[in-house]
């Protein structure tokens, strides 16, 4: 039995949920309709109860008035109660019973059940009223007629059918009015809620459109009510976050493409060279080694950039000997023979970053120096009071002074038509990676001829 109840419970709870409207407009309209229905029900019951009480009170007043008129025809001054005959007393005798104590003196013809109820009222004495149903509702009231030596009781009856019809008419009218008012309430609520939610729907459509095209428009510049203004502020924050995520996604894609281009070019070059003519086993082995090194470099690039994209800071522990790391980098980049690599101070010079990260920071700077240098490229590492420095200098055209402020902005190049391939992402990437470990990359504007970049890293 308990197992059956457990199976039935989800079904019974899910049934009202399926009946509930799925839209906020429908739910608010349903709440308003239910609330109005309960209010109308209470008001209708109260109104009809008051109306019936009022009709019964009017009937009692009429009965007592008739009883008082009949009492004028009853003589209680003697030892016996006598009913005086008057003109037009047939109007007063209709549905009237007169008692002397418990003895019936006068009653309407053919009113057996009415007489029995009147006997009960007269037997209890005092002023009492009762309602019975004899071929229709009847209201009976007893009225004592005191006297000096004897007492009488007059019981009058009144047909309540007209009053009951009036009450039924009032009830039907109130129900019809309730139905009309509920229909109007539901329709007006749906209309009002729809008009109130129209700006929300418009804002939602605009937010979807703006997020798709990364628009600069925002809801904060529009005039809205306070509630919608707060909603607009929340949507603006979401749009800004989406825009930031899209910008980071494009930046990561560009950086991966930029950094993977060099090892991928080496793999393609080695494969083209190996396919041109038959090779010895040693040459094939050397080609495989070059491809494996380039593939390892690509894996390291992906790991480094993806870790930075996930965490925002590179927290992987490690230290790197600067000179050996720079030598491996120059071999991997296949730099020209006019590059000089020097270090100041007693070796080993150790930086407080992993070797692969040091390569990723210096690689774009070294590639740019080799690309633009005329006759020489110099890489010098040395110790500084706050860490380790690596200077990369060349004797190329240098950085135009007008472009120095935009040098580290992603996608910006001083002269896109200078004949050198590049996307303008290497320098921003080098600076961002250096900053992620507490270092920096800066351009020395006073150097001439050519360009000089200084990499500052924490000491290991």
The percent range for strand residues is 15-25%
User: Cα distance, first to last residue?
Assistant: 72 Å
The structural class is: alpha+beta
| Total strands | 14
CATH superfamily of the domain at 316-457: Histidine kinase-like ATPase, C-terminal domain
Number of helical elements: 10
Describe this structure in words.
This protein is α+β, with helices and mostly antiparallel strands and 460 residues long. Among the domains are: 73-161, 2-Layer Sandwich (Beta-Lactamase); 316-457, Heat Shock Protein 90 (2-Layer Sandwich), CATH 3.30.565.10. It contains ten helices and 14 strands. The chain has helices at residues 2-19, 24-71, 89-93, 112-124, 161-213, 226-276, 281-311, 322-333, 355-372, 426-436, and strands spanning 74-75, 82-83, 96-100, 103-106, 128-133, 137-145, 152-159, 320-321, 339-343, 350-351, 377-384, 387-394, 440-443, 451-457. A five-stranded antiparallel beta sheet has the order 4-3-7-6-5. A five-stranded mixed beta sheet has the order 9-11-12-14-13. The protein has a two-stranded antiparallel ribbon with strand order 1-2. A hairpin with a 2-residue loop joins strand 3 and strand 4. The radius of gyration is 52 Å and the shape is rod-shaped. The two termini are 72 Å apart. Keywords: Kinase, Membrane, Phosphoprotein, Transferase, Transmembrane, Transmembrane helix, Two-component regulatory system. It catalyses: ATP + protein L-histidine = ADP + protein N-phospho-L-histidine.
